[in-house]
């Protein structure tokens, strides 16, 4: 990348790669509107934590399963193909991030999603992934 002053515009021209601005030019109105609309750092940190915990395929599968039905730890293990100990560990991570909650019924612990918004996120994400896979397969088959 090569930077050089642009002629009389207070900008810096550059030879840039694809997807990069060729000049440095801040649009103050856009920056102000976006800054005012952004959630505070605490909210974005919490969102990143939820997305981070869902970024693991095993935990994502567990969340998808719990979006269908409340399950006890043993059932979660069977659905996810894990040992009960491993399932319990993953459920604890999800519980620590506020994604799942549980209730005790006798000697069993039943897990459920705490928030329907997480269900919506997973449905949207999985639907998006499936649509992308289908369009990619169609493009390869054409």
Key terms:
142 residues; extended; alpha+beta; 58% helix; three-stranded antiparallel sheet; Metal_resp_trans_reg; single chain; 6 helices; DNA binding; Arc Repressor Mutant, subunit A
Write the layout of secondary structure elements.
Layout: E1 2-5, E2 12-15, E3 23-24, H1 28-37, H2 41-54, H3 57-68, E4 71-72, H4 73-80, H5 84-96, E5 100-105, E6 108-113, H6 116-141
Antiparallel strand pairs: 1-2, 2-3, 4-6, 5-6
Give a structural overview.
The chain has a domain of 86 residues: Orthogonal Bundle (Arc Repressor Mutant, subunit A). Strands 1-2-3 form a 3-stranded antiparallel beta sheet, with no helix packed on it. Strands 4-6-5 form a 3-stranded antiparallel beta sheet. A hairpin with a 2-residue loop joins β5 and β6. It is α+β, with helices and mostly antiparallel strands and 142 residues long. Helices cover 58% and strands 17% of the residues. The longest helix has 26 residues. It is extended, with a radius of gyration of 23 Å.
Please compute the radius of gyration using only Cα atoms: 23 Å
State the name of the first-level CATH class of the domain at 56-141. Answer: Mainly Alpha
Could you tell me the number of beta strands? 6
Portion in helices: 55-70%
InterPro entries: ArsR-like_HTH, ArsR_HTH, HTH_ArsR_DNA-bd_dom, Metal_resp_trans_reg, WH-like_DNA-bd_sf, WH_DNA-bd_sf
Domain HTH arsR-type: 39-133
Pfam families: HTH_5
Protein name: Metalloregulator ArsR/SmtB family transcription factor
């Amino acid at each position: 990348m090569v930077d050089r002053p642009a002629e009389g515009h207070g900008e810096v021209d550059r030879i840039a790669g694809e997807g990069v601005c060729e000049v440095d030019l801040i649009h103050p109105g856009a920056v102000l509107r976006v800054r005012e609309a952004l959630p505070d750092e605490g909210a974005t940190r919490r969102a990143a934590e939820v997305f981070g915990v869902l970024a693991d395929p095993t935990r994502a599968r567990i969340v998808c399963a719990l979006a269908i039905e409340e399950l006890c730890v043993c059932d979660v293990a069977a659905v996810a193909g894990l040992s009960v100990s491993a399932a319990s560990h993953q459920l604890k991570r999800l519980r620590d991030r506020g994604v799942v909650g549980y209730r005790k019924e006798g000697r069993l612990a039943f897990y459920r999603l705490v928030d329907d918004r997480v269900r919506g996120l997973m449905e949207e994400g999985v639907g998006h992934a499936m649509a992308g896979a289908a369009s990619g397969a169609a493009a390869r088959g054409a």
